[in-house]
Write a structure and sequence with these properties.
11 strands; 23% helix; 212 residues; eight-stranded antiparallel β-barrel
Amino acid sequence: MGYLLVIIIALLAIVAVLVLFDYLGKRRLRKAEEEALRNRTYRPGDPFSSADDDAVYGNPRNLKPSDLIEIRGDTYAVRGTLRLTQGSFVWTENHLDTGLGRKAWISVEDDPDLEVVLWEELKGVTVTPGPDAVEVDGRRYFTDESGSANFTSAGTTGLAPTGALRYHDYQAADDTRLSFEDFGGGWECARGQVLDPGEYRIYPSNPAPEKP
């Protein structure tokens, strides 16, 4: 009987700790959101800056292998990151994996405002990029930009540490994106959706310690 009582007390203690951590986490998030709102309202500066959103949801520009990112309720691990350069323009592509068979990647760029796009590969696409407009799966896309870039690779990307690629990006009327990339083995096609800051949350693998 005494042993059972000890087990019950231990379980209650564990539940209490979990409730406390949940409460503290929600309180911390609420304070961050309130601070971001105050800063956006009263602080002078660029009214379209994404710094406040980054403070609440994490800065996607800093994503790196082994970080976690929650997107629309699904949690992904960042397995690899490509840093791409075209002249003075720089952007990243982060390869994601849920560990349950679902893979994707997100591109992050400032052009000039922050844009985060979730991409998923399209199989069996026979369209070749180049025309001003293409049609895939019944949706019409119009050419946006194209060119070539150099990249450096970190983590698991399936690519060499450095290399080059060609790309051709399209955009539909509803803002859905279509991208073709060629890393030397032929064109690969992916469909992309622009993410709002509230649709993702980043959990760095080695976050900086909080300031007192």
